[in-house]
Fold each of these.
Amino acid sequence: MKTHTIYSITGLTCNNCVAKVQAALAPHADFVEVTLKPPQVTLTGQKDNVDTLNTILKNVGNYQIGAEILSASNVKNSEDSKSFLTTYKPLILVFFYILLVTLAIEAASGNFVLHRFMPNFMAGFFLVFSFFKLLDLAGFASSYAMYDLLAKRVYAYGFIYPFIELGLGTLYLLDYRPMLANAITLIVMTFSSIGVILAVMNKQKIRCACLGTGFNLPMTTVTIIEDLLMAGMALWMLI
């Protein structure tokens, strides 16, 4: 068990600020959670003192950690204390709704056709996930750059990626150039999963950006499954 400390913070004005502060502080604690309302920083296993952390934050913006609000020893990591269903409720609901709609389409067609079900499911997946990312494009790009291999090197890729998902969703929805859509999906999702796998293997306690910045989802094997599921469907349809 490690010390679990909550600090006040000034300078936060939007979700993009939250993502920037979380990214800056991530290497300096075992777990970091930043909230906009209330403006607080929660650190588990803090590795540096407040003065050092404030020096780091000055390099990314006008942010400053203030007074310690709560500190407790032997408190479990907040992510561990949550149940799986509580933590991943937004992601589970999104998948459920997409699955429900695609199954309804199959039911209305009178028979279940796998090669019709999968493109419709993938259309729903990409369109819905791109929607959440586009709600806060700058915030997503900042979070995505924390673990995606290409976004780390080319920051602009984080701004482009949601539009790639939007384009793929549209192609699947219209059933236009399916082989091209499947090939792009296989490449993009396989490459994306590499960064996620490395982050999970290195036990990085960072937020998954799959649903943008609107939800605080942790980066775990669930994210790996999500990416590889899309890559696997694309590969199946290519074969």
Amino acid sequence: MSACATAFCPGHLSGYFRPVYGSDPGRCGSLGAGIVIREGVTTTVRPADAIDITVERRDPVTGAVLEVLTSAPPIEYLLVQMGVTVKVKTECTLPIGAGFGLSAAALLSTATAVNQLFSLFLSPFECGELAHEAEIVHKTGLGDVAACMGGGRDCRKDAGIGAEIDRNYDIPDTLCAVVFGPLPSPRVLGSPDAMERVIRAFPGRCPRDSGDFFRLARKFAIDSGLATTEVLHALTACDEAGIPATMTMLGNGVFACGKKAFKVLSSLGDTFILHPAETGVRLVEARG
């Protein structure tokens, strides 16, 4: 039986954020609030003579492969930093680049699996630092890695893996998200004008409860100028139905909670049922 290790990391719905910049990636990132979700990324790694990466998106019902990528620069960067050559296979069921924190989940699950496979004896914090650095360097996210270290509705009070994070578990059993297409994070995170608008729109505090989270996040989506025409239409539809909703950050989509959410959002585009996560990244299996 060949040696391998498998780890899982939940995804993350970011509601609002404020970027923090600096010369040290470990001190860069974002403050902000979001929800960790059970739907994430499973990564399996095996020893290899050269780095070989496959990213698969599968149908959540049939398991059929919907999308395959054979290049992932942030993961390759992570592996180089960890000093290993492996065959990596990551699997997810949510759309890639749609604001579900999947890049962070792929990096954190990869670091966790590699750490186990090669007995590197890194702490979860150190694995998180490596994953966070890869995400910052490649501008695929700012605070998702820190959020995915645990579960719940998170509020990050500082940047980086060492940030103080409040976690609450008051989100209903299910959430619903509609996706209108990708919104590449590097395009937004690399735009000084977009980031200036984000900084001005940041609420400056943690939500008091789940309802307050959606109110703050929805206002942020509008004030930041990040909401697309499709997002604005979906938010209006949710408002008319009395459904708490906001934009996926960063993605061209909307997520909402409530029994009526699926009926409203499914009439607008590709819709996904999501579940709040109680825990963060974890090792699934290791074979020697």
Amino acid sequence: MKDEGGDRPHRHRGLVARLRNNFLAGLAVVLPVGLTIYFAWAVIGWIDSWILPLVPTRLRPDQYFGYNIRGIGLVIFLIFTAIVGWLAKGLIGRSLIRTGESLVARMPVVRSVYNGLKQIVETVFSQSESKFDRACVIEYPRKGIWGIGFVSTRAKGELAEKIPGDEIVTVFVATTPNPTSGFLLFVPRRDIVFLDMTVEDAAKLIISAGLVYPNPADPTVPPPRALAPRAD
């Protein structure tokens, strides 16, 4: 007669393994969505906490509904910013901005802080079409070790004249897991190995520390070849 008692531990371990796998699979789906909603909710609340105190008391939503509606401060901020941007494009707005910047330029400490923040904001929100052309790998920080980089353009002006080499290319080598920081390098084109993966896929590879490849089903098959870098 078959001993059913000996099969119970195996069935029990199999059930636990299935529950664990289902839980991990569900966590992989729920966690990104939950964290995204949480951070969005927190950011909206943070903006509301800054904007609503500036709104006159009689115009606040809690005066009419009995409670604050989350997101009202964000809407007010967006409308106000759009109006300021519209005014800044006009002659009067540009004159006011120049007057304000001239006043700030006379304040030693404030001037440095303002200029630094202005450069950062203009870089982040620049509406120009400048962008990375292609992803590549170069031997960095020494021979035999390869790092992923992003080709922006050819070196120009004094850099192109004084750096030895036939054609010098500007390459940004990003750091893991934060691709917004890294090193700006000027590399001879002959030392660059261009990749077929897109810039977005290369960024995902850096952020994931090498865990997410462009083609997860078959990493040996590259995506369609990227466009050649611009000549300018």
Amino acid sequence: MGVKTTLVIMAAGLGTRYGEGRIKQLDPIGPNGEIIMDYSIYDAKAAGFDKVVFIIRKDIKQAFDDMIGKRIGAQIETDYVYQQTNDVPEAYKNVERAKPWGTGHAVFACRGVVKEPFAVINADDVYGRKAFEAMHEFLVSADLDSDGKMHLAMPGFILENTLSREGTVTRGVCEASDGFLTDITETYGIRREGGKVLSFTAKKDETLKEVDAKSHVSMNMWACPAEFIDTLGAEFEKFLSEHADEAGAEFLLPGVINDMIHRGEADCRLIETTDKWFGMTSVKDKAAAQAAVRANIEAGVYPEKLWG
């Protein structure tokens, strides 16, 4: 029997940019009611993944059951975990928090459920088949914890292939050497403007700077050994000791991985992919996502009825 692999889908985000009371992850974009996650799951299954674990909030579980449970559960093994703001070490139980602690905290919620090598993705992005194939191949063929160092991987997308037709995006702009990630910088407000690709110089600074359109970027898709989840627990406690009282502080996967690389505790292979992303950052992206699905159907990438 080969190595079993799991796809972890982060779907606990509040989706505030998508409109009041609407769950963007569950908004149909395909010709037969398919949602954006359907296409990622279809690609992941085709690439060889055996199981899907959804990270959600408890308050949207019924919507997930209605839209996802029976349909996806008939195609591939599925499970749920819940990201909750009070899922913190005992010393921090009294900290008040209005929203989840970030993507690192979300994946930490998978402890005890995900016990095999896994890839993690966002619920509102479609990454392309090649990215899933590369991550699966890495997970089943690599020695993920040899030499006392944790080995991870990420698909390096070309920035210009990941821009939204409407509005701005946030991307992790990567630096690499000999095929390995050396640094990643969260970059905000990226958009096309005047024939250039521009971004804000910082999250709260709207001064613009030019970004190389050919840069490699992270789309928050990572291939990880199961042991990475335990590492997230230790890193989360360290994070809370420094930032628990900061209302907007976020415990993010790119930051954790970047820190581990700099400390020599991990390496991360950057595998270039030329796939073109599409997703739904805002409600304005829906028409573009529908057009991308239609183009992929016409090109033979997806069937007209995905789960026919």
